[in-house]
Amino acid sequence: MTEIDWNDYSLETQAIRAGHKRTHEDEHSIPIFATSSYVFASAEEAALRFTGKQPGNIYSRFTNPTVNAFQERLAFMEHGERCLAFASGMAAIMAVGMGLLKAGDHVVCSRSVFGNTVLMFQNYFGKFGVETDFAELTDLSAWEAAIRPSTRFLFLETPSNPLMEIADISALADIAHRHDCLLIVDNVFCTPVLQKPLTLGADLVVHSATKYMDGQGRCVGGAVIGSESIIEKEIYPFLRTGGATMSPFNAWVFLSGLETLSIRMKAHCENAFALAQWLQQQETVETVHYPGLPTHAQHELAKRQQSHFGGVVSFELKGGQEQAWNLINSTKMLSITANLGDVKTTITHPATTTHGRLAPEVRAAAGIKDSLVRISVGLENVEDIKQDLLAGL
Fold first, then answer.
1. pLDDT of 68 over the 80 cut
2. What is the C-alpha separation between 91 and 120, in angstroms, rounded?
3. Distance between CA atoms of 244 and 272, rounded to whole angstroms?
4. DSSP state letter for 317
5. pLDDT tens for residues 193-220?
6. C-alpha of 242 from chain center
7. Cis peptide bond upstream of 162, omega within 30
8. How far apart are CA 201 and CA 367, in angstroms?
């Protein structure tokens, strides 16, 4: 098969074709290489492989053809030089920290990230002498003021979870690089279909492949994408040693998910936009958080930075936790689960689930109220989604 430079092709084509290196069996679909180890032609070849002087498979903890195909495909889609896959999105974030940080280093993290990300930096990296300060996602001056001489990187999600705030990636990249720091962006809500942080100045992109890349709630996985130099020198050694490895089966599922990612994301966005507009009209809804609405504080930034506005909508009800729980419990069709990015619409109460382990004052600082409900809008008919919410509204 003729070698193809997939950089010459569009994202939709990359998502279907890139990364597949056809074997001698001439298969049309990427196979699952369910093997833990590989056979070498000689002791000399084994030695060359282990020292890195000869490319090739060694052991599936860090080299597997199916996982490699997923990594290569996602790297093309994100316009990155290299991608590494991990057992989960949190494993990917852990690998970034373990690869880049040492005792005495400092991190500036968005206050508006997934609850477990906060705990990762505070409770676990903090154990080993890494300090973390949290900044308001949209306040550029707060980010700059938080940077110290020991700051290694800035970390954020945009759009944020669950309030759908938008960070100015280019501006934050300028701030980070001016202070000799890296900018790391969790791109899980947008995927490369809607946003490419590396082209906006970010140094690393993190994903939970569990979400939209799978798209059907089947497998758990994560990824980190960036330059060859950062990935090879800083992140890959931790994967090889630490073993937070994506399984070949999960990689195969994610490869299939990437094939339909573009059309799914566009459909998610259409449904979410329609639902957000409808929620604004409901008397019991106080505030709707969705960047596609002109009332959203970063609406114009989202229009410039993203190709669409995303598939997640959150909103606050006129009432506290009781009203939020009543709405959730009144639904018949929607799935009450904290996962997102599924073809099935999911609904959750962030203050007692995804962010429930955070101290109340930390949740309050992040703007996560007891009246807040988050919906990951699926691909059902949007009128059916509205109907399912009406009883609780």
1. yes
2. 10
3. 34
4. E
5. 999 999 999 999 999 999 999 999 999 9
6. 21
7. yes
8. 28
Specify whether the CB–CB gap between 258 and 74 falls below 8 A: yes
* Distance of alpha carbon 341 from alpha carbon 190, whole angstroms: 10
Residues in the chain: 393
d(CA 49, CA 56): 6
Distance CA 346, CA 342 (A): 8
Please, which residues have CB within 8 angstroms of residue 154's CB and are 6 or more apart in sequence?
Answer: 107, 108, 109, 143, 147, 172, 175, 176, 181, 182, 183, 184
Q: Which residues are within 8 A (CB) of 378 and not within 5 positions of it... i.e. 6 or more apart?
A: 268, 271, 342, 343, 344, 345, 346, 385
Nearest to 286 by CA among 323, 329, 237, 336: 323
182: enclosing H helix or E strand:
strand 182-186
**CB-CB contact of 143 with 118 (8 Å):** no
Q: Which domains does the chain have, with CATH numbers?
A: 6-104+176-259 (3.40.640.10), 262-390 (3.90.1150.10)
Q: Rounded to an integer, what distance in angstroms lies between the CA atom of residue 343 and that of residue 268?
A: 8
Which residues pair with residue 82 across a beta bridge?
Answer: 226
pLDDT reading at 2 higher than 80:
no
Residues 273-286 pLDDT 10s: 999 999 999 999 99
DSSP state of 56: S
Q: What is the dihedral of CA 197, 202, 203, 206, to 10 degrees?
A: -50
Q: What is the pLDDT of residues 143-168, one digit of tens each?
A: 999 999 999 999 999 999 999 999 99
Give this prediction's pTM: 0.95
Q: How far apart are CA 364 and CA 134, in angstroms?
A: 13
Buried b (16+ CB within 10 A) or exposed e, 274-309: bbbebbeebeebebbbbbbbeebebeebbeebbebb
- Two tokens at 11? 């994202």
CA max distance for the chain: 74
Give whole-number Cα distances, 338 to 21, 169, 232, 268, 309, in Å.
Answer: 36, 27, 34, 17, 20
Query: Is cis: bond before 55, omega within 30 of 0?
Result: no
From 95, 67, 382, select the one nearest 239 (Cα to Cα): 95
